[in-house]
Amino acid sequence: MLMNRIAPAAAVLTAALVPCSAVYAADTTKIGYGQGTAVDQFNRPCDAAAFNSRYGDLDAFALSQDDKRIIITFDQGYENGYTAKILDTLKEKDVSAIFFLTGDYAKKEPDLVRRMIAEGHTLGNHGMTHASLPSLSDAEAEKEIMSLHDYVMNNYGIQMQYFRPPCGEYSEKALETVRDLGYKTVFWSFAYVDWKTDAQPEPSQALEKLTESAHGGEILLLHSVSSTNAEILGQLIDALRAKGYTV
Q1: Which is catalytic among the residues 75, 121, 130, 149?
Q2: How far is Cα 168 from Cα 171, in angstroms, rounded to an integer?
Q3: Is 66 annotated in the active site?
Q4: Residue 2, in any domain of the structure
Q5: Segment 132-167, tens digit of pLDDT
Q6: Is residue 93 situated within a structural domain?
Q7: CATH number, domain at 192?
Q8: By residue range, what is the domain housing residue 72?
Q9: Which residues have C-beta within 8 Å of that of residue 136, sequence separation ≥ 6?
Q10: How many domains are contained in the chain?
Q11: E strands of 59-189, at which residues?
């Protein structure tokens, strides 16, 4: 299955006059991902397509390869009372989604997490403490990912395989770390400002924005803390299907 600026290529260093193999060092520069505003002829954000091209070999993606499908994902940082309604709508529309859990959410909301599992949704890893991986040491980054991995496995019987970088921040080194831990990194090809609970988007405008930006292979990021998302989700799914996409 399955961002704004693209990281510099990793350095390849060869010692002069010494008959040895090249030494490779992954770039550790922290980059904040964003899909950008420019789109290609398929309505895909250019920065998302560029991210796939640059980092696909590290199992890191901002678009899926299925140009007939749109994947809906939710970041679950904390519960704001709308997840049950979102799950109701997904069930009604027969849509499965990916829910990226933080450690706090996995621990505090067992009933909702079990409902996600029971209704056929996929659990993703959003970091035990939602820490930015490029800011961590190798050991800390591994703990950030695998402590949540083990918690979800031990408490819910689910072995997660998709990771969404907290804060939308990454480096080439961080992507390598995620891959080496058996995960695929999943960013997004469209998101909008839906997480500010005291400044929610107007529902009809949000629906129009999300529908007009639809594109094949889209990975849509929504936040479940949004009252607007909970209100328009069913209409959005219908609108995307009307445009010919599998959701």
Answers
A1: 75
A2: 10
A3: no
A4: no
A5: 999 999 999 999 999 999 999 999 999 999 999 999
A6: yes
A7: 3.20.20.370
A8: 11-242
A9: 144
A10: 1
A11: 60-61, 70-76, 98-101, 122-125, 162-163, 169-170, 184-186
SS3 48: helix
User: 106-123: b or e for each residue (b if 16 or more CB lie within 10 Å)?
Assistant: beebeebbebbbeeebbb
> What amino acid is encoded at 206 in this protein?
A
For residue 4, being part of any structural domain is answered with no
Q: Which amino acid is at 39?
A: V
Q: What is the DSSP letter of 56?
A: G
Tokens of 16: 């002069």
* Active site annotation includes 223: yes
Strands 190-191, 218-223: pairing is parallel
Rounded CA-CA distance 55/171 in Å is 10
DSSP assignment string, 97-128: -EEEE-HHHHHH-HHHHHHHHHTTPEEEE--S
Asked if the structure places residue 32 within a domain, the reply is yes
Which of 130, 149, 215, 223 is labelled catalytic? Answer: 223
pLDDT digits (tens, 9 = 90+) for 30-67: 999 999 999 999 999 999 999 999 999 999 999 999 99
Could you tell me whether strands 98-101 and 122-125 are parallel, antiparallel, or unpaired per DSSP bridges? parallel
Q: Which of 60, 32, 58, 34 is nearest to 46 (CA)?
A: 34
Identity of the amino acid at 116: M
